[in-house]
Design brief:
The structure is a homodimer. Chain A is built from seven helices and three strands. By secondary structure, chain A is mostly helical. Chains A and B meet through helix 1, helix 2, helix 3, helix 6 and helix 7 of A and helix 1, helix 2, helix 3 and helix 6 of B. The structure holds a DNA duplex. Chains A, B: InterPro entries: HTH_HxlR (IPR002577), WH-like_DNA-bd_sf (IPR036388), WH_DNA-bd_sf (IPR036390). Chains A, B: Keywords: DNA-binding, Transcription, Transcription regulation. Chains A, B: Pfam families: HxlR (PF01638).
Chain lengths: ~150, ~150
Amino acid sequence: MTTMKAAQKRAQAKVEYNAFLAGCPSRQLLDRISDKWVVLILCALGGDNSRGQTGAAHADTPKAMRYSEISRLLAGVSQKMLTQTLRSLEHDGLLTRTVTPTVPVTVSYELTDLGLSLHHMTRGLRNWAQTHMAEVLANRENYDARTS
Amino acid sequence: MTTMKAAQKRAQAKVEYNAFLAGCPSRQLLDRISDKWVVLILCALGGDNSRGQTGAAHADTPKAMRYSEISRLLAGVSQKMLTQTLRSLEHDGLLTRTVTPTVPVTVSYELTDLGLSLHHMTRGLRNWAQTHMAEVLANRENYDARTS
DNA sequence: AGAGAAACTTCCTATCGGGAAGTAGGCACT
DNA sequence: AGTGCCTACTTCCCGATAGGAAGTTTCTCT
């Protein structure tokens, strides 16, 4: 990693990434995005906030949200994890952090195009969880009954 | 009404589950599937094993794999986590575990239809990680340069 | 008899997430 | 003037959890 320009390196490396390899950067990236808080934050910022509309694809209305808004929507997230996860997503360029020096300072977060592209995946995950919940529950009962 | 058909039940349940609520079962399910080992195992069993083909969608050839095969493919997974994760996926009905009493016992794992449907999501995640790796790397450099 | 192989299981420890309390800095009310 | 409250964090402590390594079981081959 010395004389090659970053852009060149990236272009060449694209073919080489394989998330199954422990040392591969794409594996680390996959590890990071395979995180419950990452998925939920992307869903929140991607606009599929309320319940319902789980099955059908509907227009995304990605919207900027304030720290406290996200905190309220993602019931159960600790402030520490929220801040930490938002920072890492900002670091990777998935969202932008904007500070407005209002009365009490206002910080808003918004998905970038890159973040939006990942949002398509996370929205799918959330929808899957909600639509197949009943099936999974049935399978669990079944399994527990068999192994009792 | 216990005579409700599964499809109906699912359709109704859809409206009720909301992964944003901390207590909702679908939230717990989302937490479980938003796990790096879950994603990688599903990718492995779903058939997109080798490197390459990062961008284009290609035919899945879900295949049964032995414990040791998975262990070898997912470099870096500990035996404990592999066993644990496979059990939880079996418990939820995403894959089947088959023991064949051969010379040294052979255990093979295979995706169920439910697991296969989730595989579509996880494959997307893996592809996303591999195709956008370069972009993320660039964003990180950028971020670090700005905040240095 | 002893080695070896597959698929775990158990134990120990390092790391990580959650809970709660503390911080900054500006306004607003008494 | 001082007390208190607001947002968006940061810090600290502790219990839960992931990882590494070694042990277990059962059978076969040498």
